[in-house]
Structures are given as C-alpha cells and as structure tokens.
Write a structure and sequence with these properties.
This protein has 364 residues and is of the alpha+beta class. The chain has one domain (9-357): Sandwich (Jelly Rolls), CATH 2.60.120. The chain has ten helices and 16 strands. The chain has helices spanning 55-59, 62-78, 91-107, 110-114, 171-182, 186-196, 225-230, 280-285, 303-306, 341-353; strands spanning 51-53, 81-85, 119-121, 124-129, 143-147, 212-220, 235-238, 244-248, 255-258, 264-266, 274-278, 295-297, 310-312, 315-318, 324-325, 339-340. Strands 1, 2, 3, 4, 5, 6, 8, 11, 13 and 14 form a ten-stranded mixed β-sheet that branches. Strands 7-12-9-10 form a four-stranded antiparallel β-sheet, with no helix packed on it.
C-alpha cells in the first residue's frame, strides 16, 4: 500500500515550491526545487553578497557594535545572507574539519551508516541521511549527517556513550572542537540582530546561553554523468528552519542564493570566512522583516571541480522544542500568533519527511 503521507520523488525535478506551500509557516517565493531547466534560469553574475567584520562586535566599543549591527541587519533584510570576517575561529580548524567530513563518510561502510539512520529527536531529525534520501521530494546528490547537543554530551549525561551517536567515536572530540569554536558566535549575532531591530539586545541571552543546535555534515560525491542528465541537483532549493546558520566557506563552488527579483546569485566566500544566513524561526519572530532566503547547491561549472567530492558543515542555531516563537516585542502589527518550536519546526519539515513527522503541541 502506498503511504499517502510520503511524497513521490519521481516528480522531483519538476517540483515547485508552490506544491508544498501548505507546510510553510512563513511566506516563501515560488521556485523550482531542483534545477529542472538550468539553461533558461537567470543569474546575477555581478551581485556580491556583503561582507561584515564581526570582530567589531566581539572586540570593539559600543559604537563599533552599533555599526556592525546596522551593517549586518541591512544585509539580512536585503538578501538574508552575509559573509562574516573577523570571527576569530582559526581557519586551520575549518581546513581540518573538511578532511574529517570526507574521512567519516568514505571510511565508514554503508551498513555501519545505516545503523544511525536519521530520526526525530525533539524537533530535529538527527542521524544519517543516505544519498538521494535527504528529502522525500527530490533525489539530492548528497549524503548528510546531523549531530545535536546530545551527540557531544554538552549537558553532561554521566551515562553518555559516544558509540550511540557516532559510527567511529574518535570523530566526536574532533567535531566537538569545531562546534565549541563556533557556538560563541551565536549570542553576539543574535544580539546584533536584535539591536538592529530596536529590541532589547539581551532578549535571547538565556535561550542561547546553552543553545540547541544541529551540526550538519554534507558529503557530495563526484557528479556522475547519469545523475547530471537526470536533472537531480546536489541539494534542492530550500530555506533553513532555524534562527540562522553558520557555514564555513566551502572549498568547491556550488552554493546559490535566490534574490528577490527571482534571479540566482552564485555565492563565493573567501577561505576562512563564515557564510551566515537567516532561517524560518527568525523570519517568523521578526514579522517577516528578515527573510529566510532560498538557496541550493549546484554542480560546479568547471568539469574538473565536478569530478571532485565537495564537503560542507553548516551549524544551525535552533531553539529548544518547548520554547515559544513569537513576534519580537515592539515590532508593529504582528502577523503571527505565538507557536511552540516543535510545532513550527516539524510542520515545516514535514515537507521533506512526510506528514507523519509533524507534531502538534499547542501553546497554553
């Protein structure tokens, strides 16, 4: 019997975001989820994503913090993406992490990986996603793995055993170094966004003191001719379901951002920088002032690069499942009623995982 709660991948390259609009909790543009007709698509080759020096916020005075908040907020409001410089994370950490990602995926057998198949923990689907199975609606050419707080035992569970989350436990301390280097950026980023919006900058301090997060590892194998001809993309067009995402600049091109005029932008970030983009949580609480911008990963234009694997390791800033998303105080004409994080998150991601994924938890 066909499970009507699951989507049919056969329509993948033909799928439009409008077909799945019923899952969206904030307005989204209409676009093809996959690169069904890359040729006719419009690109803005001369558009550059803004770069911001977050070092002014981390080490500057009040005037520096105000200037950074204004620059960051304008970029977020205009396109939802910005390139962060001056973040203080050693570039060698990112270089090493890229090697760890490739090693984890290539030395671990499929049989071992499938022992850790992704399942919902709280609001987030954590674990392993096989290639072409990261979504129910399109056969993406990527393997994924999501690790949350529990995978690093950041809450000090005395019964923690890394083998329950990691096929090779020796990778846990390596990736813990990476996330512990990036997590301190969550709070100053959120404070700067709140400052830009005229809200209390400390409003989210408690919620982000020990933040919920998802460390996603992506491994894109070399593009095969048959896959390229099928219309499958490396990662379908989507928006992130979080407050914001930190993506250390990948070495191989592919990340593309959908501008408000319907044209795609090829994002080129210098090595060692971090790409920051806003997500659906933030669009909701900012009353649509800061968009959760559509983006995708496409094969490189250079055939030599397409023959190489590509890795990325975005870090998503989440809130805890029982917390409430509500329009920030002081923003005029709120459009949205308060909603619990687990309801908002799972209703939206049921688009990718099937209707049964959604969890209803009313606000009392």
């Amino acid at each position: 019997m066909v499970d009507s709660s699951r989507h049919d991948k056969r329509h993948g390259p033909r799928a439009s975001s409008a077909q799945f609009a019923r899952y969206d909790q904030v307005p989204k543009p209409d676009y093809h989820l996959a690169e069904a007709a890359d040729g006719p698509e419009s690109f803005e080759e001369n558009f550059s994503i803004a770069s911001c020096d977050i070092g002014r916020c981390l080490h500057g005075n009040a005037r520096d913090r105000d200037a950074f908040a204004q620059e960051l907020g304008e970029a977020m409001r205009n396109i939802g993406f910005v390139i962060l410089e001056g973040h203080g994370v050693d570039a060698r950490c990112f270089q090493e992490a890229a090697g760890w990602v490739e090693e984890l995926f290539t030395i671990t057998s499929l049989e071992q990986k499938l022992d850790f198949r992704a399942a919902r923990h709280g609001a987030v689907s954590e674990g392993y996603f096989p290639i072409k199975e990261t979504s129910d609606i399109h056969p993406d050419l990527v393997e994924g793995w999501v690790f949350g707080r529990r995978a690093f035992n950041l809450d000090g569970d005395p019964a923690f055993d890394a083998r329950t989350c990691w096929p090779r436990p020796e990778f846990e301390p390596q990736f813990r170094r990476l996330i512990l280097a990036e997590l301190p950026l969550f709070l100053p980023i959120m404070q700067s966004i709140l400052r830009f919006l005229g809200c209390d900058p400390q409003l989210y301090d408690e919620r982000l003191a020990r933040p919920n997060f998802g460390q996603r590892l992506n491994y894109y194998p070399p593009v095969q001719c048959a896959d390229a001809q099928s219309g499958a993309g490396r990662l379908l067009a989507h928006e992130d379901v979080d407050l914001f995402t930190l993506l250390p600049a990948p070495a191989v091109e592919g990340l593309q951002v959908l501008n408000t005029n319907g044209k795609w932008i090829r994002l080129h970030a210098p090595p060692g920088t971090i790409v920051l983009n806003t997500g659906d949580y933030l669009q909701r609480i900012t009353n649509d002032l800061l968009p959760s911008t559509t983006h995708r990963v496409s094969p490189p234009r250079d055939p030599e690069l397409a023959a190489l694997p590509r890795v990325s390791f975005p870090l998503a800033a989440y809130l805890k499942p029982d917390e409430i998303l509500e329009v920030l105080p002081g923003l005029p004409n709120p459009k949205y009623e308060p909603i619990r994080v687990i309801t908002f998150h799972t209703r939206t991601t049921a688009k990718f995982y099937g209707d049964a994924y959604a969890v209803e938890s009313p606000v009392e």
